[in-house]
Specification:
Rossmann fold; six-stranded parallel sheet; 35% helix
Length: 208
């Protein structure tokens, strides 16, 4: 069976933390591939600053050379907010024999009850919860209550939390400071070449 890791997010921009999580999860859960899926617009977050095409291009260059890593435009090609249930159902329709594993930060796992059709998400995919700085990896009771088999469909991945945030990177870009330590070289070059995040407004560090 094809075991696919589904790694969604705004990726605004993609950074080394995303790649570290994907590498660790793929190895630990014996996944055949990881699909990086940039969202057109997250229903629960502010609109991304970089365009969908820019974010897709940055992910594409960042994962080049990593076996089993792929980028998908499934969310970007769909109009409206990027609801995860729609993404999972779209992937299942294209790959009916695949087993899907949704990769989420511990902070996102705690927000699951607010997601559209969260119970159906747990039916469509197993969840791999990865540590996030300042967030517990204990699965909240309200999340476990979403599905009768939630306790065996949600897996906590024990890896060191990655303390890199896209908002911190954008703030560095807005200050004209280098971000090479946090993003692959091709991403840093793409940001500079396309003058991305120059008007970020100096955000406080936030979500991955």
């Amino acid at each position: 069976m094809d075991r696919i890791g589904v790694y969604g997010g705004t990726f605004d921009p993609v950074h080394r933390g995303h790649l570290a999580v994907a590498r660790s999860v793929r190895q630990a859960f014996d996944l055949n591939r990881i699909l990086f899926i940039p969202a057109r617009q997250s229903p629960l977050r502010a609109p991304p600053l970089a365009s969908a095409n820019d974010r897709l291009a940055m992910v594409g260059c960042a994962i080049e050379g990593f076996p089993g890593f792929e980028v998908s435009a499934i969310d970007i090609e769909r109009s409206g907010p990027s609801y995860m249930i729609d993404t999972l159902q779209g992937l299942a329709a294209k790959r009916p024999a695949a087993e899907l594993f949704l990769i989420l930060g511990a902070d996102a796992v705690s927000e699951l009850p607010a997601w559209r059709h969260a119970d159906r998400i747990l039916a469509a995919a197993q969840i791999i919860a990865v540590p996030r700085p300042g967030h517990s990896t204990e699965i909240p009771r309200e999340v476990l209550a979403l599905h009768a088999r939630a306790e065996i469909r949600i897996h906590v991945h024990r890896m060191p939390p990655v303390d890199i945030s896209a908002s911190r990177i954008r703030a560095q870009c807005a200050r004209g400071r280098p971000v090479d330590a946090w993003v692959p070289r091709c991403v840093a070059e793409y940001i500079a070449a396309h003058d991305l995040y120059a008007d970020d407004g100096i955000e406080a560090p936030g979500a991955i």
